[in-house]
Amino acid sequence: MQETVNKKGIWKVIGASSLGTLIEWYDFFIFGSLSIVIATKFFPADNPTAAFLSTLATFAAGFVVRPFGALFFGRLGDLIGRKYTFMVTLMLMGGATFLIGCVPSYETIGFWAPLLVLILRLLQGLALGGEYGGAATYVAEHSPPGERGYWTSWIQTTATFGLFISLVVILITRTVLDENQFDSWGWRVPFLLSIFMVYVSYLIRKNMDESPEFKKAKSEGKTSTNPLKESFGNKYNLKFVLLALFGAAMGQGVVWYTGQFYSMSYMKTVMFLDSNQADMILGIALLIGTPFFIVFGKLSDKVGRKWVMMTGLALAIFTYRPIYEAMYQLTNLENKQENVDLRTTENKLVVHDSKRDSVQTVNKFYTDGTNEKITTTKHLVENTEQTAQVKSTVFLSGSKYYMLIALIFIQIIYITLVYGPIAAFLVEIFPVKIRYTSMSLPYHIGNGIFGGLLPAVSTYLAMNAKTTGHSDFYLAGLWYPIIISAVCFLIGSLYITKSMTHKDLNQ
What we know:
This is MFS transporter. The protein is α+β, with helices and mostly antiparallel strands.
């Protein structure tokens, strides 16, 4: 009977913790999901490539500051408790996301636009740096012995669900509004909606109790008076911090962001796939793959955390290039045959906000069901044509469409292997009194620095390879996650031991 009561209680803990964490991830990922649109709003429009790279850099900035959030909020969590600390992070994240939706465009306020967005993005990063460690620790400290991998894996699903919901909200907004409305103001809606979701989560979280492990340590006078010094000034504990980072977290970070963010950027900017199709394909793969977080979290309770995570890293190392080669060929029009008889051309004059554009749309249809839309836009100033902007968009159908879902799904499985068990792994190797601080830093360096920089670094490598004439330029960006994963696999395989991953939480 006691076990049933405990199970009911932990479901409440997971529900309250997961909802708040899911909303924080939603807030954080909206920026990445809309990076192509944001590039046109908050940065100069005269160089689209530079604007997109600047947007990715701003996106990455939110990840770079996550370790600082981990230190600041982790210290608070070990001093005053888990509950109140990640209440603060929730409010900070929600407020910053809402304000991004309110910032005027570059055309309106000039350089203040990217500056304000950067500041708000940094606040998002600080908030997320304090959120995850608190939520994972909170759930783990409520979990029955021997089941921590299973119960903490529910928290692991929130990041993917946060991305999934961000994609769904964007797709719904795009569907409800026409293209001009979305481009003009509709892209702000997903940011503004955040404030309502945060409020609901706040109402739920404020009634949560402190974790029993922390309450016990506090009642016995065993909490830390200086979590930072005890976490990183103690050589014995520092060894575990470094092993957690270089033997697990940095590899997990690059695999996570390759499968969920680089793949999205790759579909849109390298494969030139229609944005809605890319979001839908990623969304479907995420929805199908998310339950495997629970599967591999539970498996790690039975066989240990180490080899579940190492398997995910090994698969990524050896199969990323073949997977992305197959993805690229799905939209590689050089290898497709056009059905010329079906080609259509449409010319029209578009007037928007007193601007006049001459727009030509050419639709090409290929024998395998692929459709290409080439849009050429010429801005008219006193009836004089200015420099033309050409945009090519590819649409997949039939078996090609489902093949792309399968290729993304495989990458999601790799993510679930490395990410499903890692919360339990990190929680178990650190003592209660410094757990929030100690686990948060390696996690957020691994994900924030190594993982968060991946979209910008990999996109830059691909663009540089294309500029220098490499025939396989579209695979160049993969060297970053492959090398990081390989280093992590070697360190983790050699130095993570079974004994250190099954410590009793009651230390």
